[in-house]
Amino acid sequence: MRSPSQAATRSPFADLPLLAVAVVWGSSFLAVKHLASATTVVPMLVLRFGVVLPLLVGFAWRGLRGLGAAQWRGGAVLGGILGGIFLLESYGVVHTSATNAGLIISLTMILTPLAESVVTRTAIPRAFVGAAALSLLGVGLLTEGSGLRAPSLGDLLVLGAAVLRTVHVLAMSRSRALRGVDSLALTWVQLAAATLVFVLASPFGGPAPWRVAAGWGPGQWALLLYLALFCTLFAFFVQMWAVRATSPSRVSLLLGTEPLWAAVFGIALGGDRLSALALVGGVLVLLGTEAGRRAVLPSQAAAPAAEADLPEPEPARL
Question: Is the pTM of this model over 0.90?
Answer without folding.
Answer: no
